[in-house]
Amino acid sequence: MTKAEFLAKMEADESWAPGWEAIDGVFRALYPGQKPFHYATVSRAVFGGKDFLDGCSIYPSPKGYFHLVTYGMSELYAEPEALGGEWSKWGYEMTMKLRGEKPEDCLWALDLLNNLARYTFTQKRFFEPWQFVDGRGAPIRTGTDTALTSLIIVPDTEAQGLDTLYGRLEFLQLVGITQAELSRLSTREEVRALAEQLRQAEPWLVTDLDRR
Predict the structure, then answer these.
(1) How would you write 94-124 as a 3-class SS string?
(2) Largest Cα–Cα distance of the chain, in whole Å?
């Protein structure tokens, strides 16, 4: 799309959000016919609030888990200055796969994802595949006795990255790990090896709070 075409479409449709549409397109292909459960943030940082994400959608997977995807790490709305970049803002959206009976069982993860977004936006430190996030021994779901205390970051096992009007967009999946598993990690190669080990039991790398 040329800049002139972009500006014309932007003028014709004030609600146009090409980056948002790109994310939706990937997940519509994964979950055809589904309308996701969407949770918008209410205190967005761009307006002086504390939320650095615009929202999160939750898709029930026929494989037996919920698939979460964020909105806000990449460029979402019509921004002519961002057209044709190498990366769409930070270049990724975060995902998680969680067990639960209903979407509301996954809402705790929205705080986790928003905290990670806040870290990136305020510290200018973005995430990449095969990194780990040290939770310093605290459960990833506050107020529970889950043995999962930290996270590894892998390419989403289903959602494929794509080239958008604003540049490349990848989907990075966060996977809960135990303190013992964290103690084995110091390099990206070790994170990759742990991910492959976890996939032996859980091919889709679902984060199960009951896993010990």
Answers:
(1) EEEEECCCCHHHHCHHHHHHHHHHHHHHHHC
(2) 55
Sequence length of the chain is 212
Write the pLDDT tens digit of every residue in 120-165: 999 999 999 999 999 999 999 999 999 999 999 999 999 999 999 9
Strands (E), 128-181: 132-133, 148-155, 162-164, 167-178
Report in angstroms the alpha-carbon separations of 185 from 6, 56, 113, 126: 45, 29, 22, 19
**Cα separations (Å) of 6 from 34, 77, 78, 87, 180?**
29, 12, 8, 18, 51
Quote the pLDDT of residue 46: 56
**pTM (2 d.p.):** 0.94
Distance CA 160, CA 49 (A): 31
Long-range CB contacts for residues 157-160, cutoff 8 Å, separation at least 24 = 157/97, 157/203, 157/204, 157/205, 158/30, 158/67, 158/204, 159/26, 159/27, 159/30, 159/67, 159/69, 159/95, 160/26
Integer Cα distance of 125 and 153 in angstroms: 14
> Tokens 């966060």 map to which residue?
174
Main-chain dihedrals φ then ψ at residue 142, nearest 5 degrees? -60, 140
> pLDDT digit string (tens) for 65-121?
999 999 999 999 999 999 999 999 999 999 999 999 999 999 999 999 999 999 999
Give residue for tokens 């270049």: 91
